[in-house]
Amino acid sequence: MKTLTQHPGSMLAELFTQERTPLPKDEHNRYVIDRDGMLFRYVLNFLRDGAVNLPLDFREGAQLLAEARYYRLREMVSLFPVHLVVGGALYSTTWGVITKEKGSVLKAWFSQDIVPLRRDSDGRYKIPRDGELFRFVLNFLKEGNLHLPRGFSRRRELVREAGFYRLRAMQSLLNLGLGHHAFQGIGPEN
Fold first, then answer.
1. What does the pLDDT profile of the chain (190 residues) look like in tens digits?
2. Which neighbouring-strand residues pair with 31?
3. Cα separation of 94 and 77, whole Å?
4. Which of 19, 55, 58, 188 could share a disulfide with 177, CB 3.0–4.6 Å?
5. How far apart are CA 6 and CA 20, in angstroms?
6. pTM of the shown model
7. Could you tell me the CA-to-CA distances from 129 to 43, 134, 146, 153 in Å, in that order?
């Protein structure tokens, strides 16, 4: 029971910490939850070890994400893997990172039940933007800092990308000419 109740606020914790659980039972006295039993094993594995570990060929990501949302497992949703193809470049991150920035286009896209992006044959979300510059966008979302290499010459293009994704803080840093030089500390770009 501890496994099912360890995430306060989740539907499972609420169901199994009540004096009397409102779930029906079958003829063997087992609780019945009318959801996808095959996907529930991934939910249980998350509850046991706190990670979302999926096979490389896993094709039911949207359904599993819906299950995590149904059970109100915010931590599972946050750790859920997201695979992207941006301008031909491949990226992997988590739902929590991609939806981190309030007001961003990425948060708007990935907060919907059905993400309004096309997918490739491997299920990766396709974003028709500059793939090389997206690494700076993703790193900014992960770390909240801007790390640019010394002599970075594509600042204007990166400002445009930050504007497209509605990453206002990143855009402000770029417009002010600030950013970390890779391994060099903080300072304006030359």
1. 788 888 888 888 887 787 666 778 889 988 888 889 899 999 999 999 999 988 877 888 888 988 999 999 989 989 989 999 999 999 999 999 999 999 999 999 988 767 888 988 888 899 999 999 999 999 999 998 888 998 889 999 999 999 999 999 999 888 887 555 443 333 333 3
2. 25
3. 9
4. 188
5. 18
6. 0.76
7. 34, 8, 19, 18
